[in-house]
Amino acid sequence: MSEALLEIKDLSIRYTTDKVISRAVNSINLKIDKGEVLGLVGETGAGKTTTALSILGLLPRYTSETEGEIRFKGHKLVGASEKQLRNIRGSQISMIFQDPMTSLNPVFKVGRQIGDVLKFHNKTMSQIEVGQKVDEILQMVGIPPSRKEEYPHQFSGGMKQRVMIAIAIACRPDLLIADEPTTALDVTIQAQVIKMMRSLQKELQSSIILITHDLGIVANLCDKVAIMYAGEIVESGTLEDIFAQDRGHHPYTLGLFGSLPNIKEKRSRLTPIRGLTPHPSELPEGCHFHPRCPQCMEICKTGRTPDRTVQNGHEIRCHLFSAGGRQP
Amino acid sequence: MNETVMLECVNLKKYFDTPRGSLHAVDDVSFRILEGKTLGVVGESGCGKSTLGRTILRLLPSTDGKIIFNGRDITNLPARELSALRKQMQIIFQDPFSSLDPKMTVYQIIEEPLRIHKTHPSKVERMKQVEKLMEIVGLDSRYMNTYPHELDGGRRQRIGVARALALNPKFIVCDEPVSALDVSIQAQILNLMMDLKEEFGLTYIFITHDLSVVKHISDDILVLYLGQMVELCSSERLFENPLHPYTKALLSAIPVPDLSSKGKEADVMQGEVTSPIEPPPGCRFAARCPEATDRCFQESPPFFEVEPGHFCSCFHFCHA
To answer: Is B111:B130 a contact under the CB 8 Å cutoff?
Structure first.
């Protein structure tokens, strides 16, 4: 296999505020190849968005501390200068933010907001070329180009999210980070946006990191999946590795699936995970999931849980899968 | 079999006056809920589901139609009698962050309805009752003197549930009670609500946009589109045999979390919800409907029984 497009090695991120240290991301490893769609799944506070922001160097400089390595096409991103990062942001890596209602600038026309990205990264482009390009991009995301003279408030939620996507793909990035792109949308509009993202991905051959808590969207769009809990990746592998019921899984993954009401069969009760997600400033000792884990053992309560490769590429961070542990 | 009708709406309408004309939020909705059952109300944003819930509770005045609660017409009940009624009908709100007063402690929030309705005159009794309620909803009593901002979403929603249960109601409108919560917490709250229903014999209207949740919890499901009833039938039947093109589109748009949905293209419905202000005649869904005919743009389809217990408003099933 050639070099990965993006590789994250042993990345840890801490926030320090008023003497409280929050360990938001704890030594995670991730790899994404060209043209791949990776689903980053987890609940509120799992560290998904922090991971995404760290790739773009968008974390607040004074309150956060980043350790480890992020390599994009061989270039180091952790510790890169602001100038280097600005050249990458928006052109080679871009981000679709969760909330289209607040992420667009309300006082500029949408056409200008898309054009700005193009102009910043292509200084020689003439105004006419920019205009043509904007029309082309709007068409790609399914907005009639005539609407570029309108302001964000004139668009509906789904249409605003399309504008966000248009801005993100304007420079044909190699990597697109989509942070909960459809959470704020209705199901039928969500289906439209997912369909469009799939066809854009095919057309542009971009890699996508899709951050979501919706396992249904992951099953629909992703090739690979990483499940995050309390700042760690507890399980990762291909879509089949994670979703196949006959393979071994991390207890948290099983808990997530057990919590979902199933549309296909009716169960009388759900099997939720007991307890609550710990705050990143008070992570428990040992495996961070052990206080909630139905299969917790003595060994889980102290020390660091190693990553175990269960099968080629399928990794689970759990003692159940280490040597000496019982296989479920 | 106990067949008491807990709530009945007859041609209920709620219009809002706006500068651009009359907004038809709830338009001609009729249904009944039997005691001890759960009616799920589904639809996209702006279809009038929350307005329906609030109109039924008389938190909003209705424009036309009748609300019959427990055999009694409450549509125009005067304020004094309404307050007595509030003991029997309660609401759980969507957002556990903004529906709790940030300046009140957990104890004060749950105690407030007891104090207002004077059900427990002495302070000691109220204290006991609050403790009991907190135990019922699974909140540790050590949180009694904390403020809502100190708690997470799941615990806050439990406070909302405890407050709704405080007066021993028979009927609760649940307005998207789990949509602001994470999946693992959502499952805890859904289980809690189902247990409470069993234990206290509650009747629910469960408003949500999440079809998997509504299937899980409801006996019957009502699908709304732009304030109008689209389809009404039992939960199983709706998922087995959806009739209305809108219901079909809605069902096919749900991403299913298993391997069968990998790379699957949903039948994506074109367009977006149109404006509910001064809607044109004809079927409100016609503009987005893949099966629309000329007739659909001119006349409103009636809401009629296609098969026993299965109602739908679409000309394709009306052979009269």
So the answer is: yes
A206 versus A265: the higher-pLDDT residue is A206
C-alpha pair distances (Å), A2 with each of A6, A92, A318, B63: 12, 19, 30, 67
Q: What pLDDT was estimated at residue A326?
A: 45
List C-alpha distances in Å: B66 to B8, B31, B52, B233. Answer: 8, 11, 12, 21
Residue-wise pLDDT for B236-271, tens only, equals 999 999 999 999 999 888 888 888 878 777 677 777
**Rounded CA gap, B307 and B237, in Å?**
11
Q: How many CB pairs under 8 A join A and B?
A: 136
Q: List all residues of chain A from 166 to 205 with a beta carbon under 8 Å from chain B.
A: 186-192, 194-195, 198
Disruptive mutation site among B149, B258, B274 for chain A (greatest number of A CBs within 10 Å): B258
Amino acid B3: pLDDT: 77
Residue B17 pLDDT greater than 90, yes or no: yes
| From B184, B212, B259, residue closest to A263, measured CB to CB | B212
* Mean pLDDT (whole number) for A90-98: 91
Q: Do the Cβ atoms of A243 and B191 come within 8 Å?
A: no
Q: Are B259 and A217 inside 8 Å of each other by CB?
A: no
| Average pLDDT value for residue range B154-159 | 92
B261 reaches A (C-beta below 8 A): yes
Give the pLDDT of residue B167: 93
Confidence at residue A328, expressed as pLDDT on a 0 to 100 scale:
45
Q: State chain A's mean pLDDT as an integer.
A: 89
- Å between B73 CA and nearest CA of chain A: 35
Lowest mean pLDDT among A47-51, B1-5, B13-17, B276-280: B1-5
Residue B93 CA to residue B258 CA, distance in Å, equals: 31
Report the DSSP pairing between strands B72-73 and B89-92.
unpaired
**φ and ψ of B312, to 5 deg:** -155, 145
Residue A322 has pLDDT above 80, yes or no: no
- Beta-strand ranges (E) seen in A19-72 are 20-32, 37-41, 64-72
Tell me the whole-structure pTM to 2 decimals. Answer: 0.87
Mean pLDDT along residues A148-155: 93
Please judge whether B184 and A273 are an interchain contact, meaning their C-beta atoms are less than 8 angstroms apart: yes
Nearest CA in chain B to A238: B259
The CA angle B141-B146-B148, to the nearest 5 degrees, is: 110
Strand B72-73 relative to strand B64-69, pairing: antiparallel
Interface check for B191 against chain A (CB to CB < 8 A): the answer is yes
pLDDT digits (tens, 9 = 90+) for B294-307: 999 998 899 989 99
Three-state SS at A221 = helix
Q: CA of B297 to nearest chain A CA: how many angstroms apart?
A: 22
User: Which run of H or E residues covers position B30?
Assistant: strand B21-34
Q: Distance between CA atoms of A59 and A96, rounded to whole angstroms?
A: 16
A225 in contact with chain B, both atoms CB, cutoff 8 A? no
The label of the residue with tokens 């234990």 reads B199
A257 touches chain B (CB under 8 A): yes
Task: Look at residues A154, A206, A221 and name the one whose alpha carbon lies nearest to residue A176.
Answer: A206
For residue B315, what is the DSSP state? G
Chain B residues closer than 8 Å to A158 by CB:
272
Give pLDDT, residue A266.
66
A75-76, strands of its sheet edge to edge: A20-32, A6-17, A64-72, A75-76
Q: Is B150 on the interface with A (CB under 8 A)?
A: no
Q: What is the Cα–Cα distance from A166 to A138, expressed in whole angstroms?
A: 6
